[in-house]
Specification:
This protein has about 280 residues and is an alpha/beta fold. It folds into two domains: about 5-150, Rossmann fold (3-Layer(aba) Sandwich); about 160-280, N-(1-d-carboxylethyl)-l-norvaline Dehydrogenase, domain 2 (Orthogonal Bundle), CATH 1.10.1040. It contains twelve helices and eight strands. The chain has helices at about 10-20, 40, 65-70, 90-100, 130-135, 140, 155-185, 190-205, 210-220, 230-250, 255-270, 280; strands spanning about 5, 25-30, 45, 55-60, 80-85, 105-110, 125-130, 145-150. An eight-stranded mixed beta sheet has the order 3-2-1-4-5-6-7-8, sandwiched between helices. α10 (about 230-250) runs antiparallel to α11. The longest helix is centred in the middle third of the chain and has 28 residues, at about 155-185. The chain is elongated, with a radius of gyration of 23 Å. About 30% of the residues are buried. The structure holds NADP nicotinamide-adenine-dinucleotide phosphate (NAP).
């Protein structure tokens, strides 16, 4: 079994350390607030002397600045740093250079599950950076989740991760608006839930409501047919949704942003096309 150091013991890092310990690895732990290491030390983890203590450093912190703060001016000769923290793709590329200047190699990652999903079936993580280096550590990292390698560019794992988060946050925020709206008429979240679930499933499916696939194909082909449901019709309908939420006394920040985006694509002269034409406006801010 391998030796691995977890740097950052928030909910994610702590669960990673616990999972690696349970899989039989030799786990060393480090956290800025040292007391968070105690539950893991009592389960058999070793307390690190510094954040750079070990040859494989798995980092899970609030941002990449936290990694700089934690590693300070330590040399990283021969070390592999696998960072699963959030930040911008450009900062990840900068971080790859920073680690390389200190003699180490950075693998960047975006993990697609919350703490209870770590180590569970279905969990996966986007990784980018040098594949041969990642390959040397897959035995250890696969204890956390499936490994989805997306390319050498260290910014890429974060782009995949953030693209997934965009879908996750915006669709769930719309779900929250829907529940709040329905509750103003006495419909409980539980009563509405079957309809929300059905829509989430259909959007990812292959039928007439399978818009994830439909929009991807349209975007690729550069055509957005709107004969049966034009963007103009949907921009007017979205305006009605904003008015309805306002009438009901529900907050409208996100719905108003959608309305503005649809109206912009309409004003740009593509109202006769389908909803997918909005992507042409998104690509040109
Ligand atoms: N939680 C989730 O469901 C989830 C899911 C997927 C991905 N992620 C990502 O995973 C990462 C970790 O998330 P999390 O929920 O475990 O906790 P978090 O609140 O994002 O991060 C907490 C960790 O960051 C450390 N930290 C913050 N600022 C620091 C600094 N300046 N120097 C050194 N350490 C610093 C904290 O140390 P102290 O304990 O000393 O404060 C703690 O170990 C994040 O980037 C997050 O976006 C989270």
């Amino acid at each position: 079994m391998s030796q691995v150091t977890i740097v950052g013991l928030g909910p994610m890092g702590s669960k990673m350390a616990e999972t690696l310990l349970a899989a039989g690895h030799e786990v060393t732990v480090w956290n800025r607030t040292a007391s968070k290491a105690e539950p893991l030390v009592s389960r058999g983890a070793r307390r690190a002397v510094t954040a750079a203590d070990g040859d494989l450093l798995v980092v899970s912190q609030i941002s990449y600045q936290a990694m700089y703060d934690s590693l300070g001016d330590a040399r990283l000769d021969g070390k592999v740093v696998v960072n699963l923290s959030s930040d911008t793709p450009e900062r990840l590329r900068e971080a790859a250079r920073w680690v390389a200047e200190r003699g180490g190699t950075l693998i960047t990652a975006g993990i697609m599950v919350p703490p209870p999903g770590i180590g569970q079936p279905g969990a996966y993580t986007f990784y980018s950076g040098p594949k041969d280096v990642l390959d040397r550590h897959t035995e250890t990292l696969k204890a956390l989740s499936e490994i989805t390698y997306v390319g050498t560019d260290q910014g890429l794992a974060m782009m995949y991760y953030q693209s997934q988060l965009l879908i996750f946050w915006s669709s769930l925020t719309s779900h929250m608006h829907a529940m709040a709206f329905m509750r103003t008429a006495g419909v409980s979240p539980a009563e509405f839930l079957p309809f929300a679930r059905s829509l989430f499933t259909q959007l990812g499916g292959a039928g007439p409501m399978g818009y994830a696939k439909i929009l991807a194909e349209e975007f690729e082909a550069g055509v957005h047919p709107g004969e049966l449901n034009s963007l103009h019709m949907q921009a007017v309908g979205m305006g009605h949704v904003v008015e309805a939420l306002t009438e009901a006394g529900v907050e409208t920040t996100v719905p108003r942003a959608l309305k503005a985006l649809f109206e912009r694509a309409d004003a740009e002269g593509r109202g006769h096309e389908g909803l997918g034409t909005v992507i042409e406006s998104i690509g040109k801010p």
